[in-house]
Amino acid sequence: MRYPQGGGLTAERQQFREELRLQAAERFARGEASAVIAKDLRVSVRSVQRWRRTWDDGGPRALRSQGPASLPRLNEKQFAQLEAELAKGPAAHGWEDQRWTLERVKTVIGRRFHLTYTIQRVRKLLVRNGWSCQVPARRAMERDDDAVAGWVKEVWP
């Protein structure tokens, strides 16, 4: 994953990037070239050009951080309620077997909180809050371990 477990940039990293943009704004006011600024700040020329356009439109205030790109749609209290619902098990929500799938969690979120999530967002929500995919602990009764070992040695290479 590109970002920390919580997703997005950390507060320190946001602050660092904002300081870079504000340093660039000071240099824009002095009339320095974008290529020189980019080299000194160790960023791409394209980023400096984008910052310059923003600075031209709104001044240094426009280069300040806007905060996180998106806020979680379920707050901590709601996620705790979701965990309580998931702890009841799928059968309590009308499914016959005891497997939680992303589609089922999405349905529970929709029913309980009246929010629409995509499958990918449900996965990100769960991973962000410490949940992980589970693999069945048992193997099929029909599995022939000797045949698998022979296949790995002979056929696979």
What does this structure look like?
With 157 residues, this protein is mainly alpha-helical. It has seven helices and no strands. The protein has helices at residues 11-30, 34-41, 45-58, 76-88, 102-113, 119-128, 145-154. Helix 4 packs across helix 5 (102-113). The protein starts with 10 loop residues before the first helix and ends with a helix. The relative contact order is 0.08.
Q: Could you name the key traits of this structure?
A:
0% strand, 7 helices, 157 residues, mainly alpha, elongated
Sheet of most strands: none
Number of strands: 0
**Outline, from the CA principal axes?**
elongated
Strand content: under 5%
How many helices? The count is: 7
Helix and strand composition category: mainly alpha
**Quaternary:** single chain
Stretches with pLDDT under 50, minimum 5 residues = none
Q: End-to-end span in angstroms?
A: 31 Å
Helix content: 55-70%
C-alpha-based Rg, rounded = 25 Å
Query: Can you write the helix and strand succession as a string?
Result: HHHHHHH
Mean pLDDT: 86
